[in-house]
Design brief:
Strand order of the largest sheet: 14-17-18-13-12-20-21
Keywords: Oxidoreductase
Pfam family, one: Aldedh
Organism: Kryptolebias marmoratus (Mangrove killifish)
Largest sheet: 7 strands, mixed
CATH architecture of the largest domain: 3-Layer(aba) Sandwich
Number of strands: 25
GO molecular function, one term: oxidoreductase activity, acting on the aldehyde or oxo group of donors, NAD or NADP as acceptor
Shape: globular
Strand content: 15-25%
InterPro entries: Ald_DH/histidinol_DH, Ald_DH_C, Ald_DH_CS_CYS, Ald_DH_CS_GLU, Ald_DH_N, Aldehyde_DH_dom
Radius of gyration: 27 Å
């Protein structure tokens, strides 16, 4: 299989060099060697991309396009992604370190599903008509916002692009997207496929570069009307502030997490032990496990047995279970994180290689072996802060003490996801209703769907990705002036044939009960008008 990896900026339908020809090297985390030189966007490049997106929205064919035609283009893009799924998965693996099997099924597979799902919404973002009790007719119309900026992280490069960009395009907006500086390649390949699908120039613009330059300029830019961000809480706060100060642009934020997973003694142990999805580089990773004390030792033993079975190595090898961490700086943070855990007194129960007192470097790349801590107390750093890596944090709770373990699980500033494992449905419902998180998994974990909204509470952000609501979040809502129904019908009656207008107005009404009411109103009105004119 031949692989073509674009490496320039993508602006206004063309791959172009950055201003001044500036570049940087993107690194293969498997061995630490450069993959290629990638154009490094500057402030002037951001301005060019935003101008192209604005022109495409306000003057180009995209802004005038029938929603169904827009949907057909997005469907075609999804088809092209499917045709190139192995190439996309290979690029994703080389650039991010994700194991190929997961990259193909999840990173790329769910991206394709996302574009297909939102392509179907293009012609379903409809005008809403309401008949109010006082017989007024109100029109609520949804329109695209305009130029939208999207800033995505490095853990799921293509999938995070899809979650935000698909909804944004379906609503009729144009996009300027900044991929993570360390994982730009699948975003650039996506731009190539978008051109082949027939997306007009300026609709999609891709700017690899630093957050301090590209991300900041997008946050400040007066012509950007919405910014969608996935990343750390710290950067999310900065973006929120910049967006408010610049032009009060709309913002949606999917930020950090420290997701609790409560495991009761009556759980299915085999399912509950499933760990280290995507090398732990997962925003909804179970960041802290609370295990009922009666099964604690058995559970820990089972976890260690599963870790021993994992094959660590080349992520392109189809038999590999665990690849390298995404980049060197992140690896260093994981090492420091585990050092803090050891220093604070947590028990390190699994480590096959030592590196300054904790699990560490193997195989020559940015590899970090799965790590398991027990005896973790609530006050410890590793109990409160996210590792974003393959580090399992296990704490005990007393059998039967549901309210106390819930209190401990909710004692965090994050609220992205959570989970519970138990065969007792009453217990599962009791716990899930009281966990402060945007998603609660019951007897499963890491199972998301493109039709289900995804997002968090508290300092895990606000706004939702995926689902119908995400489409509407990329729209402006216009409420038209309310017109009394009799005056409205009179105008229609005077201007057009009675039969045609009665039929068309009837079909404006959104549900059966309102339609019946509307029909009675129109019948009474037309009888009155006919009697007047006899």
């Amino acid at each position: 299989m031949s692989i073509n990896m674009p490496h320039q900026l993508f602006i206004n339908g063309e791959f172009v060099d950055a201003d001044g020809g500036k570049t940087y090297k993107t690194i293969n985390p498997t061995d630490g060697t450069p993959i290629c030189d990638v154009s490094l966007a500057q402030i002037s490049d951001v301005d060019r991309a935003v101008a192209a997106a604005k022109e495409a929205f306000e003057q180009g064919e995209w802004g005038k396009m029938n929603p169904r035609d827009r949907g057909r283009l997005i469907y075609k893009l999804a088809d092209l992604m499917e045709q190139h799924q192995e190439e996309l998965a290979t690029i994703e693996t080389i650039d991010s370190g994700a194991v190929y099997t997961l990259a193909l099924k999840t990173h790329v597979g769910m991206s394709i599903q996302t574009f297909r799902y939102f392509a179907g919404w293009c012609d379903k973002i409809q005008v809403r008509h309401l008949i109010k009790p006082n017989r007024n007719l109100t029109f609520t119309k949804k329109e695209p916002i305009g130029v939208c900026a999207i800033v995505i992280p490095w853990n799921y490069p293509l999938m995070m692009l899809a979650w935000k960009t698909a909804a944004c395009l379906a609503a009729g907006n144009t996009v300027v997207l900044k991929p993570a500086q360390v994982t730009p390649l699948t975003a650039l390949k996506f731009a190539e496929l978008g051109t082949r699908a027939g997306l007009p120039k300026g609709v999609i613009n891709i700017l690899p570069g630093s957050g301090a330059v590209v991300g900041q300029r997008l946050s400040d830019h007066p012509d950007v009307r919405k910014l969608g961000f996935t990343g750390s809480t710290e950067i999310g706060k900065q973006i929120m502030k910049s967006c408010a100060v610049s032009n009060v642009k709309k913002v949606s934020l999917e930020l950090g997490g420290k997701s609790p997973l409560i495991i009761f003694s009556d759980c299915d142990m085999d399912k509950a032990v499933s760990v280290f999805f995507n090398k732990g580089e997962n925003c909804i990773a179970a960041g802290r496990l609370f295990v009922e004390d009666s099964i604690h030792d058995q559970f820990v033993k089972k976890v260690v047995e599963e870790v021993k079975k994992m094959k660590i190595g080349d992520p392109l090898d189809r038999s590999t279970d665990h690849g390298p961490q995404n980049h060197k700086a992140h690896l260093d943070k994981l090492v420091e994180y585990c050092q803090i855990g050891v220093k604070e007194g947590a028990t390190l129960v699994w480590e096959s290689l030592m590196y300054d007192g904790c699990c560490g470097l193997v195989h020559g790349g940015f590899f970090f072996e799965p790590t398991v801590f027990t005896d973790v107390q609530d006050h410890m750093y590793i109990a409160k802060e996210e590792s974003f890596g393959p580090v399992m944090i296990i704490s005990k709770f007393k059998s039967g003490d549901l309210d106390d373990v819930l209190r401990r699980a909710n004692a965090t500033e994050y609220g992205l996801a959570s989970g519970v494992f138990t065969r007792d449905i009453s217990k599962a419902l009791y716990v899930s209703e009281r966990l402060d998180a945007g998603t609660v998994f019951v007897n499963t974990y890491n199972k998301t769907d493109v039709a289900s909204p995804f997002g968090g509470f508290k300092q895990s952000g606000y706004g939702k990705d995926l689902g119908e609501k995400n489409c509407h979040s990329y729209c402006m809502h216009f409420i038209f002036v309310t017109v009394h129904i009799f005056h409205y019908l009179h105008l229609m009656y005077m201007q057009n044939s009675t039969a045609y207008r009665r039929k068309s107005l009837y079909h404006l009404v959104p549900n059966v009960s309102e339609a019946k009411s509307f029909s009675l109103i129109t019948n009474d009105y037309f009888k009155h008008e006919m009697n007047k004119n006899v």
